[in-house]
Each structure stands twice: as C-alpha cells, then as structure tokens.
UniProtKB/TrEMBL annotation:
This is UPF0160 protein. PANTHER family: METAL DEPENDENT HYDROLASE - RELATED, MYG1 EXONUCLEASE. Residues 1-33 form the signal peptide. InterPro entries: MYG1_exonuclease. One of its GO terms (cellular component) is nucleus.
C-alpha cells in the first residue's frame, strides 16, 4: 500500500504535475489489491504523511482515514516534499496546514489550538483531528448504524475520552498530572511508546524507505487494532451496561421513595456509568446504595457508592455497628434476618435475599 516517493525522480514531481499523477496511478496499479477489477473504478485516493521516524498519531490517523467511505483503502504516501504533498487527496501530520475543507490535517504549525470540544480541552494530534472530523462516520460504519443515531454520538464521546485523548495529550507533551515531581516509575507500555519502538533501530543496517514504510505499516496495524478494540468494547460492552444503569436509575423511586437506592436488575459494570449518568440525568439526592446479585446469583449485595470513581471512601458507608460482623451475629445486630456479612470498611454487605439486602439498605439510610 506504500509508494516510496524517494524512489521516483524528483524533477518529475517538481515540474510535471499531471505526469506525477499518472506515475502515482501507475504505482497504484502495481500495488493495488483493491482497485483491480472494473476499469471504471475510481482511482485510489492518496493520503500523505511525513517520512522519517513516525509516531502513534499519524499511524493511527492514516489507519482511521482509510475506514471512511471517501478514503477507503487509500494509498499512503510518506514524504515531506511539499510539491508531492500538494498533489495528494489528504495530508496528515505534515505540511503546516489545518484545513478540513481541503483535507489538510497538520497540527504542528504556530497558532494551531484545535481541541475536540464537547468539554474536552486537550490540543489535538493528527489522530485527534481525523477522529474529530471522521470519528462519527467511522463508528457508524463499523456498527452499521446511521451516523445520526444517538448511540453513535455517545460512542464518539466515550471513545475520545477513554482512547483518543491520551494519544493527543502524549503527542503534544501534556503531562497527565499537575506536578513537577518526577514520575515514580517508567510507563513504557502505553500505545505511543510501543509505536515509537516500531521505528527502525539505529543499529539496523537497512535504513531504507522500503524498510521504514514496512515498519510504519506495522504501526498502523497496531494502533488500528487497538482503536477497533476500543470501538468494539464500547459498542458491545460499555454501551449495553450504560443502558442498564440508565434504566435502573430512572426506576429508582419506584424501588424506594428515598431515590437513594438503585437496584441493578442485571449485573454489569455499573460504577463509572453511575457517576456519569448521575450528572447527565441530574440525579439528586445522589445514589447511596446499589443492590445487585453476586456473580453466582445466589446472594444479594448491597454496595455503598464511593464519593468519586477513583476514591474508595463511600458517600454513606454501611453503619459502623454492622461492620466486620457476619451471619447470625449481624442479623442480631441489624434486626434483619439472613444477613451474610458487612465489610470492615462498610462499603459492601450481603444478604441471602433481595428483600434482605433492600432492608439493609433502607435501615442503613436511616442510621
Ligand atoms: C524522506 O524522504 C526523502 C526523499 O523523498 C529523503 O531525501 C529523506 O532523507 C527522507 N527523510 C528521512 C528522515 O528519512
Ligand atoms: C443472636 O440472638 C439470639 C437471641 O437473642 C441468641 O440466642 C444468639 O446467641 C445470638 N447469636 C449471636 C451469634 O450473637
Ligand atoms: C435475608 O435473606 C434470608 C435468606 O433468603 C431471608 O430469610 C431473610 O428474610 C432476608 N432478610 C430479609 C429482611 O428479608
Ligand atoms: C516514562 C514515560 O513514558 N512517561 C510517560 C507516562 O505517561 C504520561 C502520559 O500518560 C507521559 O506524559 C509520560 O511521559
């Protein structure tokens, strides 16, 4: 899928644009596994990015743009030659221009301050730019949904938050924490460092463009597979869990008039959704206890909600007089039959039945 700009005569590029194009198309015809077939097929689009050492952002940007209708199976041309870049259908991470109307997506130029929006303020990389302009289309195509479907919008935001923003931030050298402290340990396993290691090693005797383009292709495959994993995870697991939590939150007052107890009628990862949805649905007072069946479906759990997603401390821990007790002793203390346990920290407890767990939550609210 790569055409090596280096291998062609530069004079041709500089002075004969039509010839350049026809050469490019000839090159395409040679390497194309996709456009062989009907001679009426439109020529493959050409997407440019810089040559030399590569990063996560343009590898992912090149992968993603090829998932769009317009650039499906486009050929990637790696060069810094402005005369060549000018002839291409889209250009990422090089060229000094951000102009989506001309499919120009560089982020290195002075004055570039583009962010994703929707409350996100991290400066974009070339991957973030492609995602901002094509993310919805890509997600909709992956899921075979209409681009205007509300799930597509939700996934678009969630995938930015959990996957893309970190790539934008690392590329732009933005620290994860507001501190001057040196990090306590190295984190060399994140996607950006793994892509970095795919670059040709200095000691490798073959530093040719061909070798470099092969390495870039591996970087595209790596970043692309992780991006698609994120899309699939969010579509197949995250979104259904979110819908369950949303329904259970909406039903909370039917469960208990306090509105502070939520029953999860089907087990799913609920914590992150709860915090996000409470804000979105303006849930007030906030949920104090969540009831759900344990993994074997035998007992019911009553879990105190933490003050925030990354804190262990509960908004309203189960009563101190119940903590660390089990079975009969706990039932005696609480006056609720069938109690199984309450954790020492008061963040979780169990009863053998739904009614028991509900009685524990209701009693705890009043204590
Ligand atoms: C990029 O490609 C050009 C030829 O198009 C070559 O002269 C240059 O050395 C390459 N740059 C790097 C950093 O490999
Ligand atoms: C629970 O209370 C009953 C009745 O008062 C008593 O007989 C029993 O020993 C108590 N059990 C525990 C474990 O405290
Ligand atoms: C707790 O679970 C046990 C066993 O199912 C049940 O007998 C008991 O009634 C439950 N507690 C309440 C208050 O329902
Ligand atoms: C050593 C190392 O790779 N540190 C990086 C850890 O991750 C943050 C962002 O996630 C980077 O800013 C650090 O450079």
């Amino acid at each position: 899928m790569f055409r090596v700009a280096k291998g062609l005569n530069h004079k041709l590029f500089n002075s004969h644009r039509p010839l350049t194009l026809s050469l490019l198309l000839m090159a395409n015809a040679r390497v194309s596994a996709f456009s062989a077939g009907s001679p009426t097929t439109a020529p493959r689009k050409l997407v440019g990015t810089h040559n030399g050492s590569f990063h996560c952002d343009e590898a992912l940007g090149c992968f993603m743009i090829r998932l769009t209708k317009n650039f499906a199976a486009a050929e990637i041309v790696r060069t810094r030659d402005p005369q060549v870049l000018e002839t291409l259908d889209a250009v990422l991470d090089v060229g000094g221009v951000y102009d989506p109307s001309r499919e120009r997506y560089d982020h290195h130029q002075k004055g570039f301050e583009e962010v994703f929006g929707h409350g996100f303020t991290t400066k974009l990389s070339s991957a973030g730019l492609i995602y901002k302009h094509y993310g919805k289309e890509i997600i909709a195509r992956e899921l075979q949904l209409d681009e205007g479907h509300p799930d597509v919008h939700r996934l678009f935001l969630a995938i930015y938050k959990s996957f893309m923003e970190g790539i934008d931030a690392i590329d732009n050298g933005i620290n994860q924490y507001d501190t001057d402290q040196p990090p306590r340990y190295l984190n060399n396993t994140h996607l950006s460092t793994r892509v970095g290691r795919l670059n040709l090693d200095w000691i490798d005797p073959d530093q040719s463009s061909e070798k470099e383009n092969e390495a870039f292709q591996r970087a595209m495959a790596l970043t692309g597979s992780e991006f698609l994993d994120s899309v699939r995870f969010h579509a197949n697991s995250w979104l259904p869990a979110r819908s369950i939590v949303m329904e259970c939150l909406a039903a909370r007052r039917e469960i208990d008039p306090s509105g502070e107890i939520m029953v999860l009628n089907r087990f799913c990862p609920w914590k992150l959704h709860l915090f996000e949805l409470e804000e979105e649905m303006k849930i007030d007072p906030p949920i104090k206890y969540v009831l759900y069946q344990d993994d074997r479906g035998k007992q019911w759990r009553v879990q105190a909600v933490a003050i925030s997603p990354d804190k262990f401390e509960s908004r309203k821990p189960l009563p101190s007089q119940w903590r660390g007790l089990r079975d009969e002793q706990l039932s005696n203390e609480s006056g609720i039959p069938g109690c199984v346990f309450v954790h020492m920290s008061g963040f979780i407890g169990g009863n053998q039945s739904y009614e028991g767990a509900m009685a524990m939550a209701r009693a705890a609210l009043k204590l």
